[in-house]
TrEMBL record:
Name the UniProt record assigns to this protein: DNA primase
Compositional bias annotation for Basic and acidic residues: 615-628
Domain comment quoted from the record: Contains an N-terminal zinc-binding domain, a central core domain that contains the primase activity, and a C-terminal DnaB-binding domain.
Single biological process term from Gene Ontology: DNA replication, synthesis of primer
């Protein structure tokens, strides 16, 4: 329907925005100046205690400095009442005493029919309330008493009873002059397939009126009193008034309670919502007998930025939670998410309140998990990731889930959170087992970096000689590690590119290991943000020590930060050196561990001397027996290390082409 020119301008002129808003907020008397139309209050659109919501009565606009909500009287009514544009205009026009322009005849007819249907639904609601108080409703009252539902709570929610008869409600409404077609259009009765008289939809059931955001009865939910009934809960069929996927039970009262600061709790059924509200959790809603829909999610987010999904702690409840996650992932936005409060096994919120009271439920709500944690739990719980293939499968599934998120900022933060969880899981899985024999690799042993050898008593002097060789090797290893870490600190864009190698680089220097973990956990940040995170977690000393080391400071990519290609080549070169050294040390370790008894000390001594000779030759520029290449940053690399470097660079180039 189109409105005449200037109609909306006149409507806004007649209205006081502060009066419209004042029905939903409590003004801050210290900050507000009513004479100037300058009003302040806690925002009704998000939970807060400070008065950051500003209404400029003269200009007719509001703005929240917290959630940035803004608009005029029409938009305020649309958001707080959950109505469309024209319905908001109608509400405000009625308050301003302005008649609405003539509508399209068909649209007017439809609106009139909706009004008539809601009137019939209210008559049905009153009939059910009266029946609960009769002798026919005695069993239903006993059931509600056992569920500890007080008379005051029954009155608040309009609880009633549908008698066990075929035409009880039908005859009552027909006696009030309601037409047969209106009763059928409300979904209160069904036509007989045998050509007989229509019969009531609800029979022998406790009745729960379902109301829209404005409090109008649009449907019913009924709980069967007969334990043998096929449908324990039955909802009204969809009608002109009722679309079960676009409504929530208790939506109007929940929105009002949420506006006063109460957290929005999403429970499974009517009884849960009623129990929650009676226990002081007034901002409680439930989907209407179906899985949560996209429209219902948007309704929840209109009420609260982060609803708490409180589902039963059984298998079915967890499956429902996982379905909600899959539905919500593409819809997430900055500040719009979900948290999951998982009830104890075998209990729903109603059970928990009856046993442990409101305090027991509050404890579960306080421990609610963010959505990313439940997503991780679903993909990892009960599984073992003891092979590269299983880990790759997990990465693939999680990557596919994260890519469903449309908001790039939220998607990026989910990636960081998953990377953190993945790192913790795989780091634990990679911890090496202690080996039996003369030597055991310590925690720093691995593909990259020198193993930290632990010596068994009685191994002999020759073993100590071998340890001296390993100590020299460890010093060289620490230098290579330092250059790798410093290059990535100055050029963090390369961290993700070298992430597999970093994860396997079990550092000889404990401080290097800590720095490596920080790089992996904060991959994706720029250099400034990364340094800030490292300083926050470790303080200034580790980073200053790393970058001021002589062998680091003279590295070309450190002297000229910002040259990504030079940094890439430097990191690849240093990782190749570490790989070659680790391979040589592994061979020595294997040979030494195979030796048993003092008779093998001569062989051990010869192995130590061979390792020492190799490193002396490696550092000698005059040794003709070692063939050297020159790396891109001026370092000399022997041919064995060059082959490892070439293989690594080839893999990087292939990955770049593939991306």
């Amino acid at each position: 329907m189109s409105l005449p020119p200037n109609f909306l301008d006149e409507l806004r002129t007649r209205l006081s925005l502060s009066q419209v808003v004042g029905r939903k907020v409590m003004w801050d008397q210290r900050k507000s100046n009513q004479g100037k139309g300058d009003m302040w209050a806690p925002c009704p659109f998000h939970q807060e205690k400070s008065a950051s919501f500003h209404v400029d009565d003269r200009k007719g606009f509001y703005y929240c400095f917290g959630c940035h909500a803004k608009g005029d009287a029409i938009s305020f009514v649309r958001e707080t009442e959950n109505v469309g544009f024209m319905e908001a205009v109608e509400i405000l026009a009625g308050e301003a005493g302005m008649p609405m322009p003539a509508r399209d005849p068909k649209a007017q007819e439809k609106a009139d029919l909706r009004t008539e249907l809601t009137q019939v639904m209210e008559q049905a609601a009153q009939f059910f309330i009266m029946q609960l108080k009769t002798g026919a409703g005695a069993a239903a009252r006993d059931y509600l008493d056992r569920r500890r539902m007080t008379d005051a709570t029954r009155d608040t929610f309009g609880i009633g009873f549908a008698p066990d008869g075929w035409q009880g409600l039908w005859d009552h409404l027909r006696g009030k002059g309601v037409s047969e077609q209106m009763i059928l259009d409300c979904g209160l009765a069904k036509a007989s397939s045998k050509g007989g008289k229509p019969y009531d939809t609800f029979r022998n059931r406790i009745m729960f009126p379902i109301r829209d955001a404005r409090g109008r009865c649009i449907a019913f939910g009924g709980r069967a009193m007969d334990p043998n009934d096929n449908a324990k809960y039955l909802n009204s069929p969809e009608t002109l008034l009722f679309d079960k996927g676009r409504n929530l039970y208790n939506m109007g009262p929940a929105r009002a309670a949420s506006g006063k600061g109460a957290p929005l709790i999403v429970a499974e059924g009517y009884m849960d919502v009623i129990a929650l509200s009676a226990a002081g959790f007034g901002a409680s809603v439930a989907p209407l007998g179906t899985a949560v829909t996209e429209d219902q999610l948007h309704l929840m987010w209109r009420i609260s930025d982060e609803p708490l999904i409180a589902l039963d702690g059984d298998t079915a409840g967890m499956r429902a939670a996982y379905r909600v996650i899959d539905l919500a992932l593409p819809l997430l936005e900055a500040g719009k998410s979900l948290r999951f409060a998982v009830m104890p096994p075998g209990k729903d919120p109603d059970d928990l309140i009856r046993v442990d009271g409101a305090a027991g439920l509050q404890k579960v709500l306080d421990a609610a998990l963010p959505m990313v944690s439940l997503l991780w739990q679903r993909e990892t719980e009960g599984q073992v990731f003891d092979s590269p293939e299983r880990r790759a499968a997990l990465d693939k599934v999680l990557r596919e889930k994260i890519m469903l998120i449309r908001d790039p900022s939220v998607r990026g933060h989910y990636g960081e959170a998953i990377k953190e969880l993945r790192w913790e899981l795989f780091r634990t899985a990679r911890r090496p087992q202690k080996r039996q024999g003369a030597f055991r690799p310590g925690k720093s042993g691995g593909k990259f970096g020198a193993p930290s050898w632990q010596v068994e008593k009685g191994a002999g002097d020759s073993v100590r000689n071998s340890m001296l060789v390993a100590a020299g090797e460890s010093a060289e290893t620490r230098q290579h590690e330092a250059v790798v870490l410093a290059a990535l600190v100055t050029c963090p864009d390369l961290i993700e590119e070298f992430e597999p190698e970093l994860e396997q680089m079990h550092c000889a220097d404990p401080t290097h290991a800590i720095l490596r973990d920080q790089l992996l956990r904060h991959a994706g940040m720029d250099a400034k943000a990364l340094r800030a995170e490292i300083l926050h977690h470790l303080g200034p000393e580790p980073l200053e020590t790393l970058l001021s080391a002589r062998h680091v400071a003279v590295t070309p990519c450190i002297r000229r930060p910002g040259n990504t290609d030079l940094a890439r080549m430097t990191v690849a070169e240093q990782l190749a050196k570490l790989s070659a050294r680790a391979g040589h040390q592994a061979e020595l370790a294997e040979a030494e561990e195979d030796l048993e008894g003092p008779s093998d000390e001569a062989v051990t001594w010869r192995l130590g001397q061979a390792a020492n000779a190799r490193h002396q030759a490696e550092r000698s520029q005059q040794n003709d027996r070692v063939e050297y290449d020159v790396g891109p940053n001026g370092a000399r690399i022997d041919r064995d290390e060059r082959s490892a470097l070439d293989a690594l660079l080839e893999r990087i180039e292939y990955a770049k082409r593939g991306s």
